[in-house]
Amino acid sequence: MSKLLGHHGILRLFPNASADLLSRNTSQAPIVERDSRYEPLAKKEVQGRVGKRILVRVTSVRNRLLDEDNLCEKYHIDLCRYAGIISGDEAGKTKIETTQRKTQKGEEEKVVIEVFEPL
What we know:
With about 120 residues, this protein is of the alpha+beta class. It folds into two domains: about 1-30, no CATH class; about 55-115. It has helices at about 5-15, 20-25, 75-85; strands spanning about 55-60, 95-100, 110-115. It has a three-stranded mixed beta sheet with strand order 2-1-3, with no helix packed on it.
C-alpha cells in the first residue's frame, strides 16, 4: 500500500478497527531522513593508534556452529571503524582473525570482539 487508506479504506479492511488504530494509520506518512549513499566515510584519525598493526579477533559464540565461510566478521569490523576503535581494516594496519565456539550450558549466543595492540 503506497498511499494511506483513510478511515473508510481501513474500516473496509478492518471493520472493528478502534479509534486509536484509525488515528495512528491515517495521519501523514513519515518522512525518510535521507537516502542511503554509496560513498566512503570520511577518514578520521584515531588517537593512539597511528603506525601500529593491530589484531582484531572476532569470536562467534553459538548454539550450533556455522560453516567457516558463513562467519561474517566484516559487519563487526566496520562497526569498530565507525566507532573509532580501529583506524582502518587495511591489511597493513589490521590483522583480522575469526573464530567460533559452542555456547556452554546456560550461556547466551553472542559475538566477542577483542582488539590487541602489539607491544
